[in-house]
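Quick start: what a row looks like.
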Amino acid sequence: MRDVSRLLRAAGSFACLSLATVASSNADARELRVVSGWATNYAFTEHILKPFMAEVEKATNGEITFVLSGPDTVATFEQFQPMQAGVFDVLFTHPSYHAGTTTLGMSIDATAADPAGRREAGVFDFIADHYRTNLQVELVGAPPIGSDGFRIFLKSPIDGEPGLDGRKIRGTASHQSLVRALGGSPVNMPGGEVYTSLQRGVIDGAIWTTTGVVEFKLNEVADYYSEPAFGQVGALIFFNGATWASLDDDQRAAITAAAKAIELQSVEVFDRLGADELAELQKLGMEKADFSEGEGAALDKYWAESVWEAASAQAAEPVAELRALAAKAGLAE
């Protein structure tokens, strides 16, 4: 009987020790709150943000985990300030979505879709330092979403020059000068409003990324896609400044490594997804609408100038410095 009592006491002591060990281990774990500018099942979130989070969790042996929210929690154009204030620890977004706070980040879209080149030339660090110094947030990654970023999806075909003459075209702050150069009137509008706006004739077309058209069913309300594709779009991954500072060196290194890896993968992944999506759109009956040879050749130039103009709106001097830095490295004109 005494032996049984000793065994029970030993088992109880072991259980208490095990629970203490687990509690100690769990005390080091961090569950970070993430908000995405795109739906949690959207292609950008699925193929950039989720692999990034998975890699961080793996590299930190579960010390860092994530809980993800999307625009259904906080509207896309209203997410930067909550992340900055610490309501969220991480933000996955496009810089045009917080153009009211700063426009400099939009410059990333006027540089070549070459993430390694951007980092080597100091372009990434220049943008990251702007956010860190002025807004107390940490930019950890800027994955390009394919080699070609955009097409324009239209209710009626292109007919002559200028190709968008008299049409109301949805875009973001980055697109306004481009739309005007093609004869159209820019309409700044969140992605979630595009379907009904096309359906009701509020707009005549929409600039959209080369992926995500089928998912938003824009082929149901627009019959044409423009050629050639143009520009590039760069997503940004931010950490709240206080959250970033609270992580240890190994955790920060793991996050940085994961962000760099996702940057290198994203161009190839989205080039493939874009090609697959174009084939699907053609199967669904969407027809090609070609810009004239002259306008088609000028689209990338129009795009870059549109981005530089928008980025300069609140930060003319640093944007000029950044443009010179990128041009010296052959990443911009």
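That is the whole record. Residues 1-27 have pLDDT under 50 and may be disordered. The first strand starts at residue 30 and ends at 36.
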